[in-house]
Amino acid sequence: MPTRVLLIDDDVRLYELLASYLEQNGFTVTAVSDGPQGLAALGNGTFDAVLLDVMMPGMDGLEVLRRIREKNRIPVLMLTAKGDETDRVVGLEIGADDYVPKPFSPRELLARLRAVLRRAAPDAIDQRIRVGDIAIEVGCRQVSFGGKPVDLTGVEFDILLALARRPGRVVAREALLAEAGRGDVTVGDRTVDVHISHLRQKLGDDPKSPRLIKTVRGVGYVLAKDLV
Q1: 101 touches 82 (CB < 8 A)
Q2: Which structural domains are found in the chain, ordered by start?
Q3: What is the b/e burial string over 58-89, where b = at least 16 CB atoms within 10 angstroms of the residue's CB?
Q4: Distance CA 134, CA 227 (A)
Q5: Which of 10, 33, 47, 51 counts the highest number of beta carbons within 10 A?
Q6: Nearest to residue 124, comparing CAs of 111, 137, 142, 109?
Q7: Which pTM was predicted?
């Protein structure tokens, strides 16, 4: 599955440059043009890293970083104006993983991005997520329910993981498609529904009145936060 990167920057040309280059190197890039959109995107989808510009209208990158760090340890690489040492120092102090001064070469950014992802990898490998009786070992991709192992396909695991990372919150079908490595929404809407049905069966969830994975009609699905 491609590594998912969220770019928060109001420079459209930068997105066009990075999207083309990073996609050739195993990444997918989602771009938003301001801080509030970036925070919303992080809330609605799962990403592996964030590229965050400091200088943006309205909410600047440092404030966006503060809000990200209140809830999330995702790797964040700051994009700063060349020679602006103050922004770099403050960014690192409040939780940035690295910075790249503009203008930069895509090759340099790729190298720094890979470096912060490598540093974050041990945490991802050891990560365990528990929601009620559902336990997920992220690194070894194993799931148990009520202490008993559950045999899931790769896509089923990715969809369950996406839901478990945001318990009690609705996850749109499009986000589930992206996290399961499927970008074709026209073909994939029904595909997600089928995999959700299989997940319910394997978790012993009543398909007529599900209590674990609930449908939000016209939007997506939510994993119940308080599972017994």
Answers
A1: yes
A2: 3-125 (3.40.50.2300), 153-223 (1.10.10.10)
A3: ebbbbebbeebeeeeebbbbbbbeeebeebbe
A4: 9
A5: 51
A6: 137
A7: 0.57
